[in-house]
Write a structure and sequence with these properties.
Helices cover about 40% and strands about 20% of the residues. By secondary structure, it is an alpha+beta fold. Strands 4, 5, 8, 9, 10, 11, 12 and 13 form an eight-stranded mixed beta sheet that branches. Strands 1, 2, 3, 6 and 7 form a five-stranded antiparallel beta sheet that branches. α5 packs parallel to α7 and α6 packs antiparallel against α7.
């Protein structure tokens, strides 16, 4: 009876977690804007005023992230300056690497699909000048970091008269359970970009201007950079991030390793697989520069989707139910924490709730296997499948 209560409680956690993660995800969406009203345009330089956002389409209804950096220079000079730092590691973002945000087109299938058919995440911005308005596509895109890890991503838009280049800078990390990038922040990457030009001979002035930009995750401020007239640079901007693999997982098991060795092994294996997938993805991406990141991600996702529950089904019968469930929570939960800590990103609230739901689902599987209760195992696996399917259908 006690075990049944625990299973029911965990299943409730799964259900509530998945519902709440969808709720939180929906709560962060920006309200749609009817049209590019005159009071939404800002003066930058030259003859063209800027709509300080990006959009998924050539309408304001597709508004996404806010423009947060402006260079008073044309695109060629701006790009040379960005890439010109002594420790710069910027690289050009290829079209198949630009599916950036968590609200991109949904992934309709997660097994057997043609990964090359994924929609690109082309983003537009809008300017208005003497001859009327015009929607702009990215003049160039740069990134610093790895596709399957964490990186800063820049989208640049040159004004038609070349008097300025507007940049949308955001941080993004690859989420293995969503099979796409999630953007946790736009302020920090703009600050990192700005800092590279402070007291630099590549810029004559770096300032912040409050423009009252509302929405698109903006705090209302715009970083404005005046480039030196002689700027002509090459390279990439930010120093390459050094990542340390997370260690010392599951310390709670050390004091009682003998009694709960199978559970400790299960927890360690779950955490290691989760972190190992991230490390493998980043390593393979660096070793195979010409390969599509999605071709690397596809088999690694299956390791998570199938390998994690398979580990629980295999190892849990050697433990008592409570220890098996604790192993899942501490092991896989520690893996989640280690993964995000290594990436150094802030975790959106909806994804925290979703990960808790996944932990609860595998916890149910562990209890069922340890107690040899087949219906409980089936319920846990069904909850795990639902937890994987919802983000792939873009519900979360």
């Amino acid at each position: 009876m006690k075990r049944a209560r625990v299973v029911v409680a965990l299943l409730v956690v799964v259900g509530v977690g998945l519902v709440l993660s969808g709720f939180f995800a929906g709560a962060t969406e920006e309200p749609a804007v009817d049209d590019v009203a005159d009071d939404r345009l800002i003066e930058v330089d030259g003859d063209y005023r800027l709509w300080p956002y990006t959009s998924r389409s050539t309408t304001v209804d597709g508004r996404t992230l806010a423009i947060n950096v402006v260079f008073h220079a044309d695109a060629e000079t701006t790009r040379a300056a960005i890439e010109g730092g002594s420790n710069a590691t910027w690289e050009e973002t290829r079209p198949n690497e630009s599916e950036a945000t968590a609200d991109d087109d949904q992934v309709r299938e997660f097994v057997g699909r043609d990964w090359q058919d994924a929609h690109s995440s082309l983003r537009y911005s809008y300017v208005e000048g003497p001859t009327g308005g015009a929607w702009l596509t990215e003049t160039f895109e740069l990134h610093d970091g790895t596709y399957l890890g964490v990186r800063d991503h820049l989208r640049a838009y040159e004004s038609p008269d070349g008097s300025y280049t507007a940049v949308q800078a955001h941080e993004e990390y690859y989420d293995w359970f969503r099979l796409r990038h999630t953007v946790p922040d736009i302020d920090a990457p703009a600050t990192r970009l700005e800092d590279e030009f402070i007291e630099s001979d590549r810029a004559t002035d770096v300032s912040r201007e409050y423009r009252g930009i509302d929405g698109g995750r903006s705090d209302g401020w715009l970083s404005v950079i005046e480039l030196a007239a002689t700027a002509a640079f090459a390279g990439a901007l930010l120093r390459r991030r050094t990542r340390e693999a997370a260690a010392d997982l599951l310390r709670r098991f050390r004091s009682d390793a003998g009694r709960h060795a199978p559970a400790a092994t299960l927890g360690l294996a779950l955490g290691t697989v989760l972190v190992g997938v991230r490390v493998a993805g980043v390593t393979l991406e660096a070793a195979l520069p010409g390969a599509s990141p999605k071709a690397i991600a596809a088999p690694l996702y299956l390791v998570l989707a199938l390998g994690l529950p398979a580990l629980v089904v295999w190892r849990a019968p050697r433990s008592d139910p409570a220890a098996a469930a604790l192993a899942v929570v501490v092991g896989l939960g520690g893996g989640f924490v280690a993964d995000f800590a290594a990436l150094g990103v802030a975790v959106p609230p909806d994804l925290i709730v979703h990960r808790v739901a996944l932990l609860a689902a595998l916890g149910v599987v562990a209890i069922g296997r340890a107690a040899a209760d087949r219906p409980v195992v089936v319920a846990g696996l069904a909850a795990w499948a639902v937890g994987l399917a919802l983000p792939l259908m873009d519900v979360i």
